[in-house]
Amino acid sequence: MSKTISIRGHGSVGGGAYDKVSVYGNGTVNGDLKTAAAIIRGHGVIEGNLIANRFSIAGSSIVNGNIDGEEIIAKGSFETKGSLTVKSALLTGSVVLGPVRADQMKGRGNFKFRGNIECEEFFVKGVIQAQGLINAQDITLELVGESFVADIGGETITIKGIDHSGWFRKLFNRYKSPKEVRLKAEVIEGTTVDISNVEAKTVRSSTIRVGPHCRIDMVEYTESLQIDPTAEVRNKVKS
Questions:
Q1: Contact 22, 6 (CB under 8 A)
Q2: Enclosing H/E stretch for 167
Q3: Which of 49, 82, 115 is the last residue of a domain?
Q4: Nearest-angstrom CA–CA distance, 11 and 238
Q5: How far apart are CA 170 and CA 129, in angstroms?
Q6: What is the DSSP secondary structure assignment for residue 179, as one 8-state letter?
Q7: Under 8 Å between Cβ of 129 and 148
Q8: Within the chain, how many helices (H) and strands (E) appear?
């Protein structure tokens, strides 16, 4: 890497290796990009893979390839057509991702995942649609709208519906009270599971708390089970 690229206004640059790439306005990188830092303030498109120690977005960005790096911070609209592999991801707004591998991922907004998610810590506040598996040590989902995750696996799993206001009201067109919010899943499996506002076929864990507004077909547990009086559990098995 030997140079810094800055696009101001409207412009494009060829792919390659750079010390730093900045977009202030509307910019496109035509090809794969390798850089210590990629900064977008406005709208940016990368027509290839991205390798960056730090990727910072305020506005909107599309990466038509894979992302590998240390840290990504995004506020606004962000989409990658490939995989995301980073140590830390802090994402706010409307986000569409492929498969994800991260030590820590924290998000607030509307999230769509097209592949599996593997993290140490995974936190989302908002709405989530995930076609694959969420696998993490610690999983926290605070829901403000209808959500779906195919399968969830981890050590500590907490899922609940919450009230929302402020910018969340602006982000989501239809406001729902916490009791109207639902996460639908096939299987939720962990060591400690505390869930509310969940519809699932199977919940399996050592310790389980099934809170309000849940409908569960089968609960399998080994140590303890608590069921809120308003929850519906069709079958339960202690093994």
A1: yes
A2: helix 167-171
A3: 82
A4: 63
A5: 19
A6: G
A7: yes
A8: 1, 12
